[in-house]
UniProtKB/TrEMBL annotation:
It catalyses: AMP + ATP = 2 ADP. Its EC number is 2.7.4.3. Residues 31-40 have a biased composition (Low complexity). This is adenylate kinase. InterPro entries: Adenyl_kin_sub, Adenylat/UMP-CMP_kin, Adenylat_kinase_CS, ADK_active_lid_dom_sf, P-loop_NTPase.
Length: 304
């Protein structure tokens, strides 16, 4: 049945004159010859033909006519889907290589690196009350209370750059309570990477680790020595990078890692962190690439 477009125009004009009111129900919402017949949807005309949008004139009544072409209109479908940024967690014992791998991951995938340890050390350096409290726990090889760390991590993950580019959360959560807190705040990773390294290698890595206070670069006296004597002379050792303290930290890590893994069991990828850093990254890169491709495929399907 034909639809009188002049009535449509009157309804549209009324909507423009009263923008705060809900749009009216147009009288040609259903085109049927009787109440028992099913409405027939209109097919859009080809771009080479005159379309309703280009020929509509309020000065004369018009009729919408369903296309009788047997062929489907050849329209380009433009998708509005957007690929969501990656949300990755990486975990491992002290000196398992998280910092090195995080650097390689962020270089390739552009994620924002959020290291809970760095947030804590910055708080300690500021001399705040939370910083002094955190230092006491860290010196004893214990986990810093959740109420101190969780809010720092939450605030960083909510920053615009983390929301836009995606984030790589380094060394957090370290306990089931921290994992639960993040979940309740709405932070769920797409992938949880666990670096596994034997304890004797971990101790050797920690004890030989040094920090350049000017550049922030991490060196190792055996595996990655400083380039010049000038750099070597200014290197410092973190207060908790001693053999005694690292063994306490390893004990705490092993006690809590199983509980954390139980929260992310279905998205966990375990990587042998004892390998060369290039080989470790190759495995991580493979897992992330699969995730990116899957996400792109899903986005394209939704946009089609």
């Amino acid at each position: 049945m034909a639809c009188n477009v002049s009535v449509v125009h009157q309804a549209m004009a009324s909507a423009v004159a009263q923008p705060n009111k809900a749009p009216p129900q147009l009288p040609c919402a259903h085109l049927s010859s009787s109440s028992n017949s099913k409405p027939k949807p209109f097919k859009l005309l080809r771009s080479s033909q005159s379309s309703f949008a280009s020929t509509f004139s309020p000065s004369r009544p018009q009729t919408l006519i369903p296309s009788r072409s047997s062929k489907a209109p050849n329209f380009l479908v433009v998708g509005c889907g957007k690929v969501e940024p990656l949300r990755i967690m990486i975990s491992g014992a002290p000196a398992s290589g998280k910092g090195t791998q995080c650097q390689l991951i962020t270089q390739k995938y552009g994620l924002v690196h959020v290291a809970a340890g760095d947030l804590l050390r910055a708080e300690i350096a500021s001399g705040s009350e939370n910083g002094r409290c955190a230092r006491e726990y860290m010196e004893q090889g214990k986990l810093v209370p959740d109420e101190i760390v969780v809010m720092m991590v939450k605030d960083r993950l909510l920053q615009p750059d983390s929301q836009e580019k995606g984030w790589l959360l380094d060394g957090y959560p370290r306990s089931s309570s921290q994992a639960i807190a993040l979940k309740e705040l709405g932070f769920k990773p797409d992938l949880f990477i666990l670096l596994e390294v034997t304890e004797d290698i971990l101790v050797e890595r920690v004890v030989g680790r040094r920090l350049d206070p000017i550049t922030g670069k991490i060196y190792h006296l055996k595996y990655s020595p400083p380039e010049t004597q000038e750099i070597a002379s200014r290197l410092t050792q973190r207060f908790d990078d001693t053999e005694e303290k690292v063994k306490l930290r390893l004990h705490t890590h092993h006690q809590n890692v199983k509980a954390v893994l139980s929260m992310y069991e279905d998205i966990t990828v375990k990587i042998n962190g004892s390998l060369a850093k290039e080989d470790v990254f190759a495995e991580i890169d493979s897992a992330l690439s699969r995730l990116v491709e899957k996400r792109k495929s899903t986005s394209e399907s939704l946009a089609a």
